[in-house]
Amino acid sequence: MPRPRFAVFLASIGTCAGIYVLGFCRQRGLPTEGIRIVERINYAQTGMVDSIDLEIQVPPQFPSKYYDALIRSADQCKVKQTIATPPKFNVHTKVA
Predict the structure, then answer these.
(1) CA-based nearest residue to 54, from 82, 17, 4
(2) Beta-carbon contacts of residue 8 (< 8 Å; ≥ 6 apart)
(3) Please, what is the end-to-end C-alpha distance for the chain in angstroms?
(4) DSSP code of 81?
(5) pLDDT (tens digit per residue) in 33-47
């Protein structure tokens, strides 16, 4: 189980994806009521995150022709993209 601060970081992935889905719907005048992002974190035996599942739940009346577009919009999330292509970390000490 992640530590509380790490859990907040992981939650930012679902939040970010939700913002992109919301923007997609607003741009097209699509209803957003009832749309939910469900995030599932899957851990390896080591306790490290192995995979993250994002499920975009839509109400029955949501137009099915937009399902794939919702996925593409959630994929644009900058938090997800940063994890998918991690930055280089430079860790050093400095006397202040």
Answers:
(1) 17
(2) none
(3) 36
(4) H
(5) 999 999 999 989 988
| Amino acid 66: pLDDT | 97
Owner of token pair 């022709």: 65
Q: For 74-87, what is each residue's pLDDT tens digit?
A: 999 999 999 999 89
- pLDDT recorded at residue 7: 86
Q: How far apart are CA 21 and CA 41, in angstroms?
A: 20
Length in residues, the chain? 96
Chain center to CA of 56 = 10
49: amino acid identity, one letter: V
Burial class (CB in 10 A: 0-12, 13-18, 19+), 35: middle
